[in-house]
Design brief:
40% of the residues lie in helices and 9% in strands. The protein is mainly alpha-helical.
């Protein structure tokens, strides 16, 4: 492994929010392995991060699920400038979750 790849840090987003239940903190089974705890840095996304991400993505014409909104809304918590972010999850696959995000985003003055 080269020196550049040894210094790569992996960040994961989790939440206790009902706006992105598929990344709920209680489903982090992969962190039971001790060696992964040293390599993955976890960031807790709050409702405001998910709403911020939703608004930013919608400005770009992207309609993605809550976990993707949580990632985009939490990017400012990552201290590095070179970030590769993979987004997936078309919002129509979970309309109930999206309704919650849209409802909360209308109440929120964020962005």
């Amino acid at each position: 492994m080269s020196k550049k790849t040894k210094n790569i840090k992996f960040y994961g987003i989790y939440t206790k929010s009902k706006l992105a239940e598929s990344i709920n903190s209680f489903s982090l089974a992969e962190l039971k392995k001790k060696e992964l705890k040293k390599k993955i840095f976890l960031i807790n996304a709050k409702d405001k991060n998910i709403i911020t991400g939703f608004k930013l993505l919608s400005k770009e014409g992207l309609f993605l699920t809550g976990p993707s909104c949580a990632i985009v809304g939490s990017l400012d918590k990552i201290p590095h400038k070179n970030i590769c972010c993979i987004l997936s999850g078309y919002a129509r696959t979970n309309l109930v979750e999206m309704q919650k995000i849209i409802f909360k985003s209308k109440k929120s003055p964020i962005i």
